[in-house]
Amino acid sequence: MGYALAGAARHEGHEVCLVSGPTSLDVPEGVDFLHVESAQEMYEAVRDLQRGVQVAILCAAVADYRPVAVAEQKIKKGEDDLLLRLERTPDILGSMRGEFGFAGVLVGFAAETQDLLTYARQKLERKGCDMIVANDVSRPGLGFDSSMNEVTLVTRKGELALPVDTKEHLALQIVRHVIDLIP
Ligand code: C5P
Looking at ligand 1, which atom is closest to the CA of residue 107? Predict the structure, then answer.
């Protein structure tokens, strides 16, 4: 969805920087690109890039946890169960308003398997977003690892359900609605 949004925003004539973890997707033409490897690197890249930006759309499926320790060598198997200790990664979207002082239009994503709109509305308030793009990831064939998606745009003014479509078409509609939020 991030690549489709970057392409759509560029298509609409905007200057775009796409920050992405590893994927096999082609970077859309005319889009600046910053490759990151970890949640921490994405946090630092977004922190440093957001100054003066009019619109930030955060849609990466960032890992919420990372291993506390990374083994330097292969972990050999033993007789016992292996317990991995995980710690939280930084919440990039949740850092935008307070920690980073981002003042532009802020858009987050919410992928849920239940109570989609309730969680989306809570996230909108909690993270100081202007829009949450909510998608129900319990639907087979839509969302993750698919070229199709179905989303609902949640803003303070209300909700707008966009029917199932390609990510490219949805991205264009999302970008147009987001641009309308610029004061
Ligand atoms: O709270 P939750 O992780 O469900 O919210 C999803 C939103 O938060 C997405 O916009 C995603 O890009 C963003 N996110 C983030 N930093 C994380 C995890 C998710 O910015 N560590």
Answer: 10
